[in-house]
Amino acid sequence: MLMASEARKRLLELFKARAVQFGQFKLTSGRESTYYINSKKALFCSEVVALLGEVLWDLTRDLNIQAIGGLEVGAIPMATAAVLQYHLKGRELEGFFVRKQAKAHGSQELVEGVLPRGARVAVVDDVLTTAGSVVQAIAAVEQAGAEVVAVICIVDRLEGARERLTPKYNFLPIFTIRDFGIEPVQ
After folding, report:
1. If pLDDT is split at 50, 70 and 90, which confidence band does 58 have?
2. Neighbours of 102 (CB within 10 A)
3. Burial of 145 (0-12, 13-18, 19+ CB in 10 A)
4. Which of 39, 61, 145, 152 has the fewest CB within 10 Å, making it most exposed?
5. DSSP 8-state assignment for residue 150
6. Model's pTM, two decimal places?
């Protein structure tokens, strides 16, 4: 197992190689960008998942969390990597994800997985620009009666997420866009 700093360094190398794209892109926030972090190109690589689990363990192990998750789709592999790492370290952790809207069939729940009422939770997302998506997940978690003790993303694009989240939440980005050698859009 790599030390946390080595795992983080290798994770950055893999994200740079697999996830960064240049061109013209429209982001979820509606903003236009000349680059895109397509985390799904990295998050389904076995080495990335193992490294991400180690980095998430390092960020959260002292937070006394009982659950981790966030908005579909980006949070799903992140939560899975974290719960597996917790298991390997001998600690329990529940994973969950928040649907963008409840299904019209089955249980019709917005939150899938196990999110115990009163649980201390880390909400995760892959890439944050203005934090609109993660705020939706936070609202669902809080409505379910859990306490958000940290918000973690793989990449903070430095375009407003920190300013929106830090007044109320412990915001812990693994990387900022500057770690990729890219300056944020102003």
Report:
1. very high
2. 15
3. exposed
4. 145
5. E
6. 0.93
